[in-house]
Amino acid sequence: MLVVPVGKSHDYYFFVKDKLWKMVTTERLRGAFSAFVVRMTQLYGAPHSIVYRDPEFKQLPKKVQWQGKRFTVEAIAHPVYGAITIRWALRDVSDRIADLRGSQVPPGQETDTGLDPSITDIMQD
What we know:
This protein is 22% helix and 43% strand. The protein is α+β, with helices and mostly antiparallel strands. Strand 4 (49-54) and strand 5 form a beta hairpin.
């Protein structure tokens, strides 16, 4: 993993077998998350999936994913922190991640790693 300081936050770049797998960034959320989702939809098209805070009425999206042939993009709202996490993953690597890792344990799945939970959250598959 490569960590790059960007202002007050950091960007995280994940590699497997010397191939870029995914990039994760967290930014301050400016405005409503739903407005952000609309802007992302204009860029990436209709979302592949949406998870709502109020699933019964499909209100207050909290996690949205777009899938293309080459990559996936996922946006997650963190309203308590006034932030948003965005993950870009290359499909040719992420679709084969288990094969590429081989017998290596995925990041964040070792017992008692001592890692900050916010770090292990961004390392999700």
